[in-house]
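tool_call predict_complex ligand=iron/sulfur cluster
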Amino acid sequence: MSVPANLYATWRATRPGATQLHEDGPPPERLLQAVWQHQRVLRDALQLADGRAVRVLHPGFHNREPGPDFRDALVQFGNETPLRGDIEIDLVTSGWRAHKHDVNPGFRAVVLHVIWDGAGTDGLPTLSLKSRLDAPLGELADWFGGDDALRPGGLTGLCCGPLSELPREQLDALLQQAALVRLQLKAGQLAARARQGGWERALWEGLFTALGYKHNVWPMRRLAELAGACTEPLSVELWQARLSGWSGLLPAELPRGRGADADYLRRLWDAWWRERERFGDVILPRTAWRMSGLRPANQPLRRLALAAHWLASRDLPTRLERWFTREVPESALAGSLLELLQPATDEFWGWHWTLKSPRLKKAQPPLGEARLTDLAVNVVLPWLWARAAAGRNEALLKTAEARYLAWPAGEDNATLRLARERLFAGRPPRGLFLHAAAQQGVLQIVRDFCEHSNALCEHCRFPELVRRVK
Ligand code: SF4
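tool_result ok
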């Protein structure tokens, strides 16, 4: 059977994700991003709108989260000292203001605005690419093809070679060592807080901070401080009302509606408005919270509702200690901690992402597996390790470390993805990341080495460290 002529080319041109180019308009922004990432430009002829030459020492790392398009680039203008910072890509100059980047703190580290065509951006070095491509636009669109072209490429770090030569056993051991350093650093942080306010308050601050995930760490930490100072026993609903009120995220108006959900909202609202005057000076401004780009499960009020269950029970620290000192098989570690931290029921938050969202078709437990692992490796086990260290209890120290090293892997994230590209060329040995400790080890390497170097791995001593392992 013969293959029809141009079958492959025809299929490729019409596959989902193929770039449709309008010859008379600007290219799609994703094509422009791909051009920048792969530097499909006349690199020796780049010029800012103000006439200075631009040398791109590293285009930066493609950012898949909210914020500038590329992070941690290295660029040089004229003969000036090279600048390290972020790159934002827009089709036109006005995109900078139109997208409100000029007032967004997340864009403060932008050192270069790359545009398709237009004049310079106020107060920001601007580079137009329209007349600086290394091939006609149509050819580039064909090369770009689809989303795959934005896959990280050319990101491999200098440690990648030495790491790939390490025997598997030694690689595992190296990552475990880095992970244990991370465990102890986190424990040290909690112990320092305990010296100020006691072990329980240190635990609450750690738990709340972890519930804030990365976007709302600081307001959550503030709420933990407030909660830690409250000694009166409160029901779950009263804690939910108080935490929501302190957060400043409760709606100003009494919610309307009928039914069980509306009743809950009304009780919450009533309880808070009775206390509002007493706590008026500690209510956080809404601007303390970052709400954009949050997954539904990470909505702060939902997280606070979960914390309210723990606070109302009044014995969470004791239950954690009991869990720690009883025998738990490795395979039951996550399940047994989840049982302890998951509220038996929450009639409202088990069925809603936010106060205003409609009732879900299927119940969503307030605590998911990904957040459980975060809590375990970032707070619970470091807290237990710190307590064992304070009591000089070698056996419990070993238990904390054994549970930490055996904990199943957590959710992937952008930092881990980038680290895999840099350290393992995107192809880590099979099964390397089955446990959270390997992920934590890599995060610690990023913290200790990548964050102190740059995209070119200048002055990084990690490759040398890896060579020493052999
Ligand atoms: S900065 Fe160091 S640890 Fe990071 S990728 Fe480069 S060589 Fe590896």
